Amino acid sequence: MRIEAKNLSWGVPGKTIVRDVTLTVASGETVGLIGPNGSGKSSLLRCIAGLRTPDAGSVVYDGEDIARWPARQRALKMAFVEQTADTDSDLRVAEVAMLGRTAHRSRWRGPDASDHAKVAAALARLDLEGLADRPWKQLSGGERQRAHLARALAQDTQALLLDEPLNHLDVRHQLELMELVHSTTQTVVVALHDLALAARYCDRLVLMHRGTVVAEGAGADVLTSSWLRDVFDVEAEVGRDSLGHLAVGYREPAR
Q1: pLDDT tens-digit map of 107-137
Q2: Are residues 163 and 246 in the same domain?
Q3: CA 178: distance to chain centroid?
Q4: Closest CA to 174 of 190, 186, 160
Q5: What strands lie across the sheet with 159-163, from one edge to the other?
Q6: Do 124 and 237 share a domain, yes or no?
Q7: What pLDDT digit, counting tens, does each position of 42-90 carry?
Q8: Which of 30, 60, 100, 255 is the most exposed place for a label (fewest CB within 10 A)?
Q9: Helix (H, G, I), strand (E, B) or coil at 34
């Protein structure tokens, strides 16, 4: 699924948060949104997901403006995972994942064998089989995050939109999630704070600053000492680690 944001702007009264952003994500591509806090990453992602109505511009999936799509059609086409999600209900992990199948069923039909198979596969991919019957309130922050990711996988969409999905995850599960994202055939847009993981696992990086896109391209082209100084306000050196992956070493805040 090809995703296009065209001259997109969005804001709150008195402040523009996303400013005239144009971005194209090719079908099957994984694009990482990076930038400091307040740069507009999450707001842009929510506009792309159809969760916020842009003040100007449009979002187009395979040539169709999603502003015309009802909520059910959006849920069949894309899955969105926010930074921190909670619920007052004491659902079990498997029930959280089953929420991803809601748009695939009529309101009169309960889960069938196909729904249960999708949920089981999603739980397995997120290392949650042993927690399937665990109540939500007994989960750690990382386990809750993985449960919501399982819900998004069970949704079985062509596009996957992730807002800081590594929050609360330990190192092992961060790597496993990014391996999953890298290997999927879905079109993925993911907002990330970890610059090294973004460069390692994303096909392309999009650097945002003050609500607009200031650089995009391969990790080595975007994560440069000059961009890190200008956008993140830090002095840093960019090189390769012993495995050949892009590595960023921070010296001090820029002065």
Answers
A1: 777 888 999 999 999 999 999 999 999 998 8
A2: no
A3: 11
A4: 190
A5: 78-81, 159-163, 187-191, 30-34, 204-209, 212-217
A6: no
A7: 999 999 999 999 999 999 999 999 999 999 999 999 999 988 766 667 8
A8: 255
A9: strand
Looking at the structure, tell me whether residues 128 and 182 fall in a common domain: yes
Examine the domain organization and report whether 231 and 213 are in the same domain. no
What pTM did the predictor assign? 0.93
Query: Residue 87: what pLDDT?
Result: 63
Residues 199, 206: Cα–Cα separation, whole Å: 10
Q: What is the pLDDT of residues 21-33, one digit of tens each?
A: 999 999 999 999 9
**Distance of CA 112 to CAs 38, 98, 99, 101, Å?**
43, 11, 13, 10
Question: Are residues 230 and 154 both part of a single domain?
Answer: no
What is the residue-averaged pLDDT of the chain? 93
Which tokens in the block code for residue 95? 């029930």
User: Are residues 167 and 234 located together in one domain of the fold?
Assistant: no
CATH classification of the domain holding 93? 3.40.50.300
Write down the pLDDT at residue 251.
80
> How many structural domains does the chain have?
2
CA–centroid distance for 42 within its chain:
9
The range of the structural domain enclosing residue 235 comes to 224-255
Question: Tokens in use for 169?
Answer: 């995850």
